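Final paragraph of the annual report: two paired records, presented back to back.
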Amino acid sequence: MLRNLRDLFEAIGAPAETSSPEEREHALQLATAVMLVEVMRSDPETDDRERQATLAALREKFSLEEDEVERLLELAERTAEDANDYHRFTSRINRGFSREQKIRIIEYMWRIAHADGTVSAHENHLMRKVAALLYISHADYVGARMRAKAHAGLD
């Protein structure tokens, strides 16, 4: 599934028309995983529930095997540490996913934010910022949050 780090870092920044379909899919997976990792990183008190929610979201979104999900998450964590902004990731997501798929990513991000039972101010800020970069309407944003709360049993 995942190739070496250099190839993936190049693929994430490469124009879509110059990449192979496999490279575009890997770059899209990595961009999505980085956004999910950013939710974990934005919480000052990260715990294992958020990591497990991230793994579950990646499994569900991409139908990956367990070892592939672990490797993708590890790569996303390293990539997130070196990232200066979200644009290269959100632009990849905007090019690669439909409106409904982007809303689903926001819902996954909310699931991670709600995994520990509370949403920090940093998580809330990140969610608003990413939703705006993904051109998610306020109604879809709120709907995704409500579904994530229900999934977490926080109604």
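The closing record of the year follows.
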Amino acid sequence: MDKAAEAAMLAKIRALVAAHDGHGWELGSEGDGMILAAAGRDGSNVIVARFSPHATIDEMQLSSGALDYCRFLLSLVDRAIVAMKAAEQREPEPEARRAPNYSAEAAMLCGSPAFKKFLMERHGLESPATDERVAQKLRSLLRVTSRREINESDAVRDRWVRLRADFNFWKGRDVV
């Protein structure tokens, strides 16, 4: 069901429940059978439904409670809407809690002289280590055509994380 149809259905349910505002439905008996009764506009009892002898007590209780169940569920929907709107109004998540942008991190690291030296020593990057050569070597090592794929693929992201860890290990041991 699309959003427009859902909204129309919700509006219809709200209107039907509102038409019974202040009224409740109750199980009752009539002769040998069970009935569902409601208060009429003049305060009299109105028979809404008669149950067959084969109806179970659960079915009768569900029917008699339907109005109250609808009211309860509509109140849940209303509270959920209020909570969602409040969440939309809140400030965005702090940078530390956002998902890492590995592509941007890779782009910045490619400009680092230490990373260029690492690629030359460990991965055969030819001199001179121009930005284009470094970017191409990184794409080759990660087996991608664009660095943005680091954020789009778990496998590429794992290769990037391993390469970055190798670089950090190398950098920690490197004495310049």
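The mean pLDDT is 87. This concludes the annual technical report; the extension proposal builds directly on these records.
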